[in-house]
Amino acid sequence: MKGKPSRGLYSEDELKKHKKGKDYIAQKTAEQKSLEKYEQIDVDPVPKSLCRYGKREWRRIIPLLQELPIAELDRELIESYCVLHGSRRRLQEDVKKNGETYEIYDEDGVLSSIKRNPSYDMLLSTVKELRMIANQLGMTINSRLELATPEEKAEEDEIMKLIKGG
User: Is the pTM of the predicted complex or chain greater than 0.70?
Assistant: First the structure.
């Protein structure tokens, strides 16, 4: 399947071009339909609580996220992502200005130790959290390749666990 589908979904005709068979087409169609029951995200206005970096990121990602099956339920997660993005930018500026480490001198002016800049640790933590949220929102290539599992398949898996004695 070539090209980018709108909202990250493929039409049944596009799925039929895939050589995986009728079961595959039925499963993917059901997965995609399960996403339609959620209300589309309302993008206006930009949350006032965001810093300037967060607001800029909101304006950048929302048009892209609207191509994915993102719903109003995901608003809090998107806001968190933008808040963390703003924090990351401010922390990067601090690390750039003050460095990853700082030196501590004793009363005689002799170097006594080198400590890591707390902003650097916070930056690393923020980047990890951003990566996690980006994955949840479908902002990474791997997460975009996965579609939501329909309820029927989840129920089928539970039945299979019971049958297998799990």
Answer: no
